[in-house]
Amino acid sequence: MQLPFPLAEEPEAIAHETGRKLFAGQSEFVKGVVAMSGLPPADRMEVCFAGRSNVGKSSLINALTGTKGLARASNTPGRTQEINYFTQGPELYLVDLPGYGYANAPLAVVEKWQRLLKQYLSGRQTLRRAFVLIDTRHGVKKVDEEIMKLLDTSAVTFQVVMTKADKVKDKDRAKILDQVREALSKHPAAYPEIVLTSSEKGDGIATLRSIIAHLD
Ligand SMILES: Nc1nc2c(ncn2[C@@H]2O[C@H](COP(=O)(O)OP(=O)(O)O)[C@@H](O)[C@H]2O)c(=O)[nH]1
Ligand SMILES: [Mg+2]
After folding, report:
1. Ligand 1 centroid to 58 CA: how many Å?
2. What is the 3-state secondary structure (H, E, C) of 101-170?
3. What ligand has the least distance to the C-alpha of 54?
4. What is the mean pLDDT of residues 181-207?
5. So what's the pLDDT on residue 107?
6. 216 Cβ neighbours under 8 A, 6+ residues apart
């Protein structure tokens, strides 16, 4: 019997090549968006990345695009509350959502970006999938639950990407994965497959590229 929410398998040669090709194109920072009116034209497909601050989101975007320092723009103070757009070749936008879980952010700031996030997730026609990043050391936290609920109500399919897999010993990983699976089982918008990655070692990067390249 197959466990629910299995780990994504490495792509076969052809699928691997499709992913490689898509990400061989150039990546550039386009803009940081603070309101729906600032979104670039919806002229290509896009995927977005969400996760708690420090989960490894910038590192993952850099690893996917093979562009060191690309997503650093989104780390500069003042950029953290923006929806940051990157091109990946001419056919794809990679969208870096604001990191959540800053315990000390003022309520007004939190509410403002939650409103924008809600509008974005439910209103962006070309958004194909959201990737929710979860730290392999920590599993799903309460703030992750909140974004998953938001994705459920926005009817945007989301897929969990485990980050920093290199920091967790094989024997400890199974327990965390089970906690994640348990959490995902409560979310109708969860895609039934988990991607295990390490931006540091490159694990799972080709898999994620291939997954993105095969979204329709
Ligand atoms: N060991 C390890 N560290 C990572 C990995 N990904 C990110 N980090 C580290 O985690 C910290 C936060 O990463 P960053 O990408 O800036 O997180 P963000 O706040 O989610 O954008 C940095 O010190 C990274 O070097 C990984 O795959 N393995
Ligand atoms: Mg970042």
Report:
1. 7
2. CCCCCCHHHHHHHHHHHHHHHHHCCCEEEEEEEEECCCCCCHHHHHHHHHHHHHCCCEEEEEECHHHCCH
3. 1
4. 97
5. 81
6. 128
Residues 6 or more apart whose Cβ sits within 8 Å of residue 128: 45, 46, 47, 215, 216
Pocket of ligand 1 (CB under 6 A): 51, 53-59, 75, 99, 163-164, 166-167, 198-200
Query: Which is the closest atom of ligand 1 to the Cα of 61?
Result: 15
Ligand 1 atom at shortest distance from the alpha carbon of 55: 20
Task: Give the C-alpha separation, 159 to 129, whole Å.
Answer: 7
pLDDT at 70: 81
pLDDT value at residue 1 = 44
Q: Which architecture, in CATH terms, is 13-213?
A: 3-Layer(aba) Sandwich (3.40)
* CA-nearest residue, atom 6 of ligand 1: 56
3-state secondary structure at position 34: coil
Q: What is the pLDDT of residues 154-166, one digit of tens each?
A: 989 999 999 999 9
Domain boundaries, the chain: 13-213
Q: Give Rg (Cα) of the chain.
A: 16
pLDDT digits (tens, 9 = 90+) for 114-123: 889 999 999 9
Residue whose structure tokens are 């799903």:
140
Q: Residues 45, 92: contact at Cβ < 8 Å? A: yes
pLDDT score at 78: 52
Residue nearest to atom 26 of ligand 1 (CA): 164
